[in-house]
Amino acid sequence: ADCAVLIVAAGVGEFEAGISKNGQTREHALLAYTLGVKQLIVAVNKMDSTEPSYSEKRYDEIVKEVSAYIKKIGYSPASVPFVPISGWHGDNMLEPSSNMPWFKGWKLDRKEQHASGVTLLEALDTIMPPTRPTDKPLRLPLQDVYKIGGIGTVPVGRVETGILRPSMVVTFAPVNITTEVNEALPGDNVGFNVKNVSVKDIRRGNVCGDRFTAQVIILNHPGQISAGYSPVIDCHTAHIACKFAELKEKIDRRSGKKLEDNPKSLKSGDAAIVDMIPGKP
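RESULT FIELD:
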């Protein structure tokens, strides 16, 4: 994703549950940063459910606590717009709300851009399109494969790197099936007709090889993780058990700096570089 919108519930008890140690507000913010999503917008939702309704004090309390947390995981709060909204009533979604006259607007201050506004729509308009990796080899994880009458086999997925060009001959890994396709650029979600390939030959999840090196962060796991542990991994569109073959190094999860070579185990909160082997290619 190019940007994440973190929805924070302002209702009594809801915010406290989300920002708690294992709450979804914390987890979603950390996942976004860990997955490389550097642009963040925070929408403080359900402002109509605060006590009293549309409470400035409640909003300020939430902004203060969420700002402290996202700064801790790596975001700069100055570059993150905070917008108080009510999705149910539409407050500050498309137009400024008369229910929150105290809200003077959000500001965004980062090296590449300075902006301000009031609504969530205006905040979304500040998203900066990233440089697409068109110079890299083509990689397109398949989301699904269809057989359409009169057309034939139609794989569907998102171009991650490279360019899909007219009449280009591509190979589906790991089954080594080749065919020609039409053009698409990184970030495009496409369906494309391919020749000489049966719908039975390729499937959701095709792309991954038989072994790979990964950076992992242990969010919440009871006990310790050692080599040989085999969790189920969701990688692009694949869903498969993968074994931790080797714990190569423990790293700082914010800076990526190496902390320890060949650690014996990992625990909740640790980040590491590991070798993984899928249960199937």
